[in-house]
UniProtKB/TrEMBL annotation:
Family annotation (Pfam families): zf-CHY
Domain CHY-type: 25-101
Name this polypeptide is given: CHY-type domain-containing protein
Top-level lineage group: Eukaryota
Key words, A-Z: Metal-binding, Zinc, Zinc-finger
PANTHER family: CHY-TYPE DOMAIN-CONTAINING PROTEIN, ZINC FINGER PROTEIN
Single GO MF annotation: zinc ion binding
Coiled coil segments of this chain: none
An annotated GO cellular component: mitochondrial intermembrane space
Species: Blastomyces gilchristii (strain SLH14081) (Blastomyces dermatitidis)
Example of a GO biological process term: protein import into mitochondrial intermembrane space
Length: 152
């Protein structure tokens, strides 16, 4: 059992070298469920594996994330790797040096929502609201904004 574990560690160490191709390492990892608009993957300095965020590393690995100022990124648009120093991070460093993809964005986190699923909008568009048509306002003799206060 111990030999198999050591053999697997050696095999992954050989497969994931610094010159390893980006597709080999990144394509095996699923999309990040914590950040919906992740533009780059970050190589962790402790285990040299690629993750979209620190929470993904925490879920998949059994060790703490080693923090380092020298960060290695892999752009998901052009699929090229580059390094940045976190101590000297400027506004121009928010873009990929190869394709100018803006990778420092406000993170979109998934939120629970109640949605109605209908037929494909190209087939049946009755559920879509037409923004061009002016909607009729609700006509009443009472002030709708004061209604919750009057219910007592």
């Amino acid at each position: 059992m111990q030999k198999q574990f050591l053999y697997r560690q050696q095999e992954t160490a050989l497969r994931h070298t610094p010159r390893c191709c980006w597709n080999c390492c990144i394509s095996s990892i699923a999309m990040c469920k914590h950040i919906l608009n992740a533009q780059v993957s970050i190589r962790s300095p402790c285990c040299r594996r690629w993750f979209d965020c620190a929470e993904c590393h925490q879920e998949q690995e059994n060790h703490e994330l080693l923090q380092s100022f020298d960060m290695t990124f892999a752009c998901k648009k052009c699929k090229k790797c580059f390094r940045k120093d976190a101590r000297e991070f400027e506004e121009s460093d928010e873009y990929c040096p190869h394709c100018d993809n803006h990778f420092v964005l406000e993170a979109l986190t998934p939120k629970p929502a109640l949605k109605i699923e209908g037929e494909d909008a190209r087939v049946d568009s009755r559920m879509l609201k037409d923004e061009r048509v002016r909607q009729e306002e609700e006509r009443t003799i009472f002030n709708v904004k004061d209604a919750p206060n009057r219910l007592g």
